[in-house]
Amino acid sequence: MTAEMAAPAWMHEQITAEQYDSWSEEQCAGIEIVDGMVVVGPSASKRHHRLARILANALEAAAGPDWNADTGFDVRLQDAPLTNRRPDVVVYRADTIDITPTRPEHVLLVVEVVSPGSETTDRTVKTDQYAKSGIAFYWRVEQAPTGVPLVYTYVLDPAAGVYRDGEVFTGVVKVSAPFTVEFDLGRI
Questions:
Q1: SS (H, E, C) the chain
Q2: What pTM was estimated for this model as a whole?
Q3: Under the phi-then-psi rule, with left for phi > 0, alpha for psi from -120 to 50, and beta for the rest, what region is 176?
Q4: Given Cys at both, which of 11, 59, 93, 101 links 76, Cβ 3.0 to 4.6 Å?
């Protein structure tokens, strides 16, 4: 079986923002676009989805009326070449809920839950992309073999365009400014 037989032709061609915007939600689900090329990742586990949902719910509760926290949608990092990422959790300005695509200036925090197969992308590639696009905060959540996740936090240094290491949390996480929430990740 050739690659052309296994995947649609559009997966082998550079995609523009206009083309992507014309696709259905069904076509866009489960893919990201990097430098105009479709990237398909493996399906995440139930544990991965549950952790993302718990984080989104806790962040939503802490965000107040000005911010929303959700899962499962694209953040348009750049138009040409098109780069859309689909973070596991996005905290974005509430007044931009109906604006599409969601852009970095709408976003305060992105969270990536690392799964087998996404380690390098989540630890390096996405970190650089999110920083260069100006997203103020990035969290990387590692699913430790003990079952208790580790949350690595990063804060953008806007002058340098890179993230600086923040705190590392495990078990009970106390989210500091701009959020004030405490939640237990140890029961996932």
A1: CCHHHHCCHHHHCCCCHHHHHHCCHHHHCCEEEECCEEEECCCCCHHHHHHHHHHHHHHHHHHCCCEEEECCCCEEEEECCEEEECCCEEEEEHHHCCCCCECHHHEEEEEEEECCCCHHHHHHHHHHHHHHHCCCEEEEEECCCCCCCEEEEEEEECCCCEEEEEEEEECEEEECCCCCEEEECCCC
A2: 0.84
A3: beta
A4: 101
